[in-house]
Write a structure and sequence with these properties.
By secondary structure, the protein is α+β, with helices and mostly antiparallel strands. 55% of the residues lie in helices and 18% in strands. It folds into two domains: 194 residues, no CATH class; 157 residues, no CATH class. The strands form two sheets. It has a six-stranded mixed beta barrel, surrounded by four helices. It is elongated and about 100 Å long.
Length: 415
């Protein structure tokens, strides 16, 4: 019959207090493992969440372009259907742009909480004082664009609204402005591929190092872009921001299947980066798990030594009627107590390490920022669960030996 839980716990406590030095070493090992687990995990998870949040917010969750994944066959092939071979035919070229884009905007706008922004992108050349620079011109609707991207947040000077209030206004990057010697209020000549030329006035500059905006990108009103590029009423991209960004992939697939145009979710556009993050997570958790595993060796050593030193006491307990299960439970309790004390100290150590890491400033694109950390209770729970699990297993292994002790042999040898 299993003895009183409190009695077994008191015996386990006596064993631990009788070997204070080993107890302190084992607890300290677990504490260091848990503390560094929290520091590393919070840093890695926090940086990943911050990066993904930046990735999600920087651009629309879904971008529908005027591309088609599987090009439609030419009329001759559709008519003949492979009955004869054709040579020397002239391929029919189609004008770029999204046909009936208003229907796509209406359909996407019906999604719960969705914000839809049409745009037109084209290439122009900026000329000033004999210098030329290519510019990827993007025609936008400022009021809507501010809701689906982070252009407004990344402006060093100016606002998106200035495009509405300034005739021929353009927003470019600081790097491009520096190369051309431009500043806010300056006028520059822009020439399209068709040869049309007009002047644009710089009304805003976005910050250096904002790769998601493009160092050679410029933003103007949608109607200005359509006029300069000679494509009135034409758009070639539709951005969609969803209430739930993680629903972007299935929604993009449905829109592409319905309308035929290529619809890319942010997950598809960032597939390579997300794959690298997954690999990084595997490496990270392998390393920090190894730290906790090494820390559990201290528990194994402490309990194993206790079993060896207490063989005579174990024999006496067996002769008094304690079962194998009771003896196993005593030594597992020792390991659990060591792990619990180590986890409590490790939480405190991890909190201190996180505060130190969070207070370290580092420069990003000319600005001072701090390391993003994940201080959520989940990190503490993962560290505690992994450490307690490792501690119980480390204690159970030597506890099995205690249950196999033959009291007759031990007591006869002692006599």
């Amino acid at each position: 019959m299993t003895r009183s839980f409190m009695l077994l716990a008191r015996i386990a406590g006596k064993h631990l207090l009788g070997r204070r030095r080993q107890t302190i070493v084992a607890v300290s090992g677990v504490a260091v493992g848990v503390g560094f687990f929290l520091a590393v995990s919070s840093l890695m998870v926090g940086s990943q969440r911050d990066f993904i949040a930046t990735l999600v917010d920087a651009a629309p969750h879904i971008i529908i372009s005027d591309e088609i994944r599987s090009p439609t066959p030419q009329p001759a092939f559709r008519a003949i259907s492979g009955a004869v071979a054709l040579h020397g035919y002239k391929v029919r070229s189609e004008a770029r742009g999204i046909k009936d884009w208003q229907q796509i905007v209406i359909a996407a706008g019906r999604l719960p909480g969705a914000i839809v922004a049409p745009s037109l992108t084209g290439a122009v050349t900026l000329r000033l004082g004999g210098r030329e620079e290519p510019l990827a011109l993007v025609g936008i609707q400022p009021e809507i664009e501010a809701k689906i991207s982070t252009i407004e947040k990344n402006l060093r000077v100016g606002r998106l609204h200035d495009l509405d209030t300034t005739q021929g206004g353009v927003i470019i990057g600081e790097e491009l402005a520096h190369r051309l010697g431009l500043n806010v209020g300056d006028v520059v000549s822009a020439t399209s591929a068709r040869g049309d030329t007009r002047t644009l006035r710089v009304v805003g500059l976005f910050k250096r190092g904002r790769g998601q905006l493009g160092a050679s990108s410029g933003y103007v009103l949608l109607r200005e872009a359509q006029s300069l590029l000679g494509r009135p009423f034409i758009i070639n991209a539709i951005g969609v921001k969803l209430l739930d960004p993680y629903a972007a992939q299935p929604v993009a697939a449905r829109l592409e299947q319905r309308f035929g145009y290529k619809a890319q979710s942010w997950q598809e556009r960032s597939a390579d980066i997300l794959s690298l993050l997954l690999t990084r997570n595997v490496i990270m958790y392998s390393v920090v798990s190894a730290i906790l595993l090494v820390a559990s060796f201290g528990i194994y050593t402490a309990v194993s030594t206790s079993v060896t030193d207490k063989r005579r006491d174990i024999a006496i307990l067996r002769s008094m009627g304690f079962s194998e299960r009771d003896l196993q439970l005593i030594f597992v309790m020792e390991g659990l107590a060591l792990a619990l004390a180590g986890v409590a100290m490790g939480w405190a150590l991890g909190r201190v390490l996180m505060e130190i890491l969070g207070s370290i400033p580092f420069p990003v694109a000319g600005e001072t920022d701090h390391l993003p950390l994940d201080r959520s209770p989940l990190q503490y729970a993962i560290a505690a669960g992994a450490s307690l699990g490792a501690g119980i297993v480390a204690a159970w292994l030597p506890a099995r030996k205690a249950a196999q002790v033959d009291p007759v042999d031990i007591l006869r040898g002692a006599a």
